[in-house]
Amino acid sequence: MSDQPRVEIYTKADCTYCEKTEALFDSKDVEYETYDVTDDDSRLEELADRADGQETTPHVFIDDEPIGGWEETNALEETGDLDAKLGLTDDGDVIEHRPLLIAGTGIAGLSAAIYAGRSNNEPLLIEGDEPGGQLTLTTDVANYPGFPEGISGPELINNMKAQASKFGADLINGIVDSVDADSRPFRVELTNGDVYTADAVIAASGASARTLGIPGEDELMGYGLSTCATCDGAFFRGEDMLVVGGGDAAMEEATFLTKFADTVYIAHRREEFRAEDYWIDRVHEKVEDGDIEIMKNTEVIELHGSQEEGVDYVTLVENEKGHPTDRLDDPETNEFEFDVGAVFFAIGHTPNTDYLAGTGVELDDEGYLRTQGGDGGGQTETDVAGIFGAGDVVDFHYQQAVTAAGMGSKAAIDADEYLEDLDRASSTGEAEVAAADD
Ligand SMILES: Cc1cc2nc3c(=O)[nH]c(=O)nc-3n(C[C@H](O)[C@H](O)[C@H](O)COP(=O)(O)OP(=O)(O)OC[C@H]3O[C@@H](n4cnc5c(N)ncnc54)[C@H](O)[C@@H]3O)c2cc1C
């Protein structure tokens, strides 16, 4: 690609976001140069010179223009501006038809792709804004069956991607913006304007754990900071742990973590907990046992530590009027440092279902996708024929890798049965039957 702009990426060792950034350009078949700044001070100085003093990695330059890190590069991707900068834009709709399209390349989407590929349904997977899903945020998955020594999240996901590709799945970068269920095949539009059509769609788009956007968060996620106590609690045995939140999830996680922690602290920004009385009672029992301490009207504003050493301490603010971060100028707001070995955000998840608006699929009050569930086949069907759901986007309760994988395989089997029915109907001149069955 000789007229392609020059793409340069400053990287460092053990940098998940550097790998994600390189994968984004790889998915576009764009050539780039990488400069590893690990232990290379002159490269780091060069980066600071070019990036207006910034030394964070990854750092992308396109034709000498500083683009920024993963977040900025991905933001350009979502609007289609990255393709424009790379000279890859196509002003017409790029339409390709597939029997099956899968939204998401987390463990649910990839499990579905492995099964769908083996059923010759030529699945096309759209990666979304978190290629590989939430497991790419964790360094050690210790409870996925088949790996007695544990496996890193990115390695597990890369293995599954290779397995899915081996069976004929294709993965492309992009975010599904909308699914038009009035047309059959479904018309699936990405945020960059590209359009695909598909006879069946599996929504495997997960539920994103909410975070606070505070300093230290990006660097320490997966290195002492976690959004999943069930997954990561056991790694910090004997440490003091901080749970942030005041709802059911925070109470449940704090109670769970007492199995491993020296002391579990709960930081909640208000006086009253939102959690159900059941969970509050459980927590108070643990408080009486000396296992949990509650810090009300307290918020965390910064995390300190390193990827090598994990979380060292946090900066907290406290004000008895509540919501202390809204009162930072109040002389009664007390800021202090607090030593902990691990921090768990338990401030909820947001299911990624916006792109299904208008399709007619049923969502619950929180936005989770409703499927048939129950016994026998068809458990992953939504109430729109041909649209299936799998993984955390459906399952707000279990939210585990192995359960998401299981649902992904079920969705692929359900979709295969649907596609076979569609095929039979079409060969007997009844192409509209399945769609009209809604
Ligand atoms: C820090 C952390 C550690 C964890 N550790 C463990 C563990 O050790 N063991 C365990 O069992 N579980 C663990 N979990 C939970 C586990 O990661 C999840 O249950 C699992 O990833 C859910 O898989 P999923 O495929 O349903 O969703 P996700 O992994 O969330 O994947 C969702 C996918 O959908 C994509 N997407 C979103 N919106 C769109 C869109 N509009 N268009 C296209 N694609 C879209 C995303 O980019 C992503 O690829 C952990 C979770 C976290 C956060």
Jot down its keywords.
438 residues; binds flavin-adenine dinucleotide; disordered C terminus; single chain; FAD/NAD(P)-binding domain; five-stranded parallel β-sheet; Glutaredoxin; alpha/beta; globular; seven-stranded mixed β-sheet
Question: Could you describe the 3D structure shown?
Answer:
There is one protein chain. The protein has 438 residues and is α/β, with parallel strands linked by helices. It has twelve helices and 21 strands. Strands 5, 6, 7, 8, 9, 10 and 21 form a seven-stranded mixed sheet that branches. A five-stranded parallel sheet has the order 12-19-13-14-15. A four-stranded mixed sheet has the order 2-1-3-4, with helices on both faces. The longest helix is centred in the C-terminal third of the chain and has 27 residues. The protein starts with 6 loop residues before the first strand and ends with a helix. The structure holds flavin-adenine dinucleotide.
